[in-house]
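Quick one, tokens below:
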């Protein structure tokens, strides 16, 4: 039986916790909202809620160090209707694991796009100034390509609906 550490007790955590407990895994929810975590566990013998303030870096590090491996799971489901009436559904999924005894998956997923973007500015691949959003292909494609080379990729599926 594996043990899973879930950081936080929000809406995303709830179905995750229920599913993992139903499959027989041990689940530890580390959160500031112990009452909410207790509701999710609902007395299950494999569930445990612990108080954790993620601002307490030493305690957070000790929680993560006690785990076998950390991961993030991200799922997006977009349904688009274009002006011409065409409709598409785009599903995007990211599953990524942290580096054992190294960076967490969340820290990599958040910091590496910023690091890649900064490097693009420093090397002149981005020459525009001001506050830029990564919504143009000249910015997001190189970032996504480099993230893929680091093992961070989204799998997308597009279909008509």
């Amino acid at each position: 039986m594996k043990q899973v550490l879930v950081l936080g007790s929000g809406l995303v955590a709830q179905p995750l916790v229920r599913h993992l407990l139903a499959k027989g895994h041990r689940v530890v929810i580390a959160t500031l909202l112990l009452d909410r975590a207790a509701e999710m566990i609902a007395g299950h013998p494999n569930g445990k809620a612990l108080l954790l303030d993620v601002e307490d870096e030493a305690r957070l590090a000790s929680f993560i160090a006690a785990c076998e491996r950390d991961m993030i799971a991200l799922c997006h489901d977009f349904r688009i209707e274009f002006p011409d009436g065409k409709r598409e559904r785009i599903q995007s999924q990211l599953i990524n694991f942290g580096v054992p005894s190294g960076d967490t998956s969340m820290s990599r997923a958040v910091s590496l796009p910023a690091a890649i973007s900064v490097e693009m500015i420093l090397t002149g691949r981005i020459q525009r100034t001001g506050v830029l959003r990564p919504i143009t292909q000249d910015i997001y494609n190189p970032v996504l390509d480099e993230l893929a080379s680091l093992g961070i990729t989204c799998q997308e599926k597009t279909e008509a609906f």
